[in-house]
Amino acid sequence: MNTAEPDPEAGPQANAAENAPVPKSPKARPAIPKEAPAEAEEPEGGAEAAAPEPAPRPARAKPVARAAAPAPGVQTGESEPGNKLVFGLSALGLVAGLVAAYLFGTERKAQPPVFPPVSSPYDSAIFANGIIESDQASGENINIFPEVSGPITKVLVHAGQVVSAGTPLVAMDDSVQQATTAQLQAQAAAALALLDELRAEPRRETLAITEAQVVLAETNLKVVRDQYDKDRAAYDLDPKAISKDVLDTAEDAASQAAAALEVARRQNDLTKAGAWSYDIANQQKVYDALVQAHNAAAALLVKFVLMAPVDGVVLTVNGTVGGYVSSPGVFDTYTQGLDPVVVMGTPQQFLAVRCFVDEILVSKLPTAFHIQAQMTVLGSDAKVPLEFVRVEPYVSPKIELSNQRQEQVDLRVLPVIFRFPKQDAPVYPGQMVDVYIGSK
């Protein structure tokens, strides 16, 4: 910053004023130089000056103080674009707040319900959830599980099909079981053939051989005895005609021939007797065991085709061609559990409603002679009167409506069974309904 040089003719106050720092301000103004103080007044009395006045020097131009540059970060009085943006956003927010207050403060009319809410048809009633199922004397639906394991090769029915008892439902791969059954059948046939052979003894050809062996033994004995008799007669006539050794040898040969004849006769008798009774009985047991094994294999082979146990309607088929099933059922991809391969229901002229009454309301149930109920289908205004069937006297955890076997619940309910004619009611087994139970 340039400063003015001090004037030697100016007084000290003027010099101090000139050298004083100029304070910073938002807008600097040019400094106005101060005039030099007036010369000292001449002394009174008209006294003359002792010395002549010096010639005046030309006045030096004093530098004008320049405005200081604004420091960084210090706003000047001029408007900037950022300030305009802030004021614009503030105004926009104010307008948006006013519009939102108007919109949210407007009272809206409630939408009418899609269907009328459920109401009790009785002066005093018990409300219960229910689930529709097949109408049968006991149990719920008919769950069909296979007794064997294997992949499904054919699905012979579809959901909703009416079937009679013995109708094939699902077929599984039985190739291995067929081979096993055929093998056992062949073994049983072989055992039977051996048993028939034992029972058919003696064989005529075998008996003829033993009889010929007897004749041969008799002939040999006759020849040997004739030779012995000759040797004996010669020895008796002249002991020196033959030696004693030769005579003894002939006698031994006759004895051996007699023994051989006895063996041939006994063998012939054994052949005539046929097979031993114990051998026949043992073979009979072997044959019976193989027959039983074959029958079991054949019965197991039939199990590879699921049959309808009763007349009814196929409610659902959970298996598909190529899927693997076992005795616990078929794996469900969504629930990660095991389901029945086929679920059936009885003929649907009538359907049952299984109601679950909370245990704290059990004491308020009317008696069997005075109980009445009405069912309301969810999502509609259809109301169906129900006929009381029975009460299952066992309070159990309420897990039926969620179908979760591992669910931990504290609520326990009493099942109460009603029924109603199906007719044209838009309901199906497994559907949930609301039930009001009252007293006549």
Low-confidence stretches: 1-52, 402-407
Q: Kindly, what is the distance between the CA atoms of the first and last residues, rounded to a whole number of angstroms?
A: 112 Å
The fourth-level CATH homologous superfamily of the domain at 125-135 and 348-439 is: Efflux pump adaptor protein, beta barrel domain
CATH topology of the domain at 125-135 and 348-439: Elongation Factor Tu (Ef-tu), domain 3
Could you say what the CATH architecture of the domain at 125-135 and 348-439 is? Answer: Beta Barrel
CATH class of the domain at 125-135 and 348-439: Mainly Beta
Main sheet specs: 6 strands, antiparallel, barrel
Strand content: 15-25%
Using only C-alpha atoms, the radius of gyration works out to 64 Å
Spatial strand order of the main sheet: 1-12-16-14-13-17
Share of helix, binned = 25-40%
What would the average pLDDT be, to the nearest integer? Answer: 80
What class would the helix/strand composition place it in?
A: alpha+beta
Number of strands: 17
Q: What's the total helix number?
A: 6
What is the H/E string? HHEEEEEHHHHEEEEEEEEEEEE
Coarse shape: elongated
Any overview of this molecule?
The longest helix has 34 residues, at 204-237. This protein is elongated. Among the domains are: 125-135 and 348-439, Elongation Factor Tu (Ef-tu), domain 3 (Beta Barrel), CATH 2.40.30; 142-173 and 304-343, RNA polymerase II/Efflux pump adaptor protein, barrel-sandwich hybrid domain (OB fold (Dihydrolipoamide Acetyltransferase, E2P), Beta Barrel); 202-274, Helix Hairpins, CATH 1.10.287. The strands form three sheets. Strands 1-12-16-14-13-17 form a six-stranded antiparallel β-barrel. A six-stranded antiparallel beta sheet has the order 6-5-3-8-9-10, with no helix packed on it. The chain contains six helices and 17 strands. It has helices at 12-19, 81-105, 175-200, 204-237, 244-273, 277-302, and strands at residues 125-134, 142-144, 150-155, 162-163, 168-172, 305-307, 312-317, 324-326, 329-331, 338-339, 342-345, 350-358, 371-377, 383-391, 396-397, 412-421, 432-439. Helices cover 34% and strands 21% of the residues. It is of the alpha+beta class and 440 residues long. The relative contact order is 0.15.
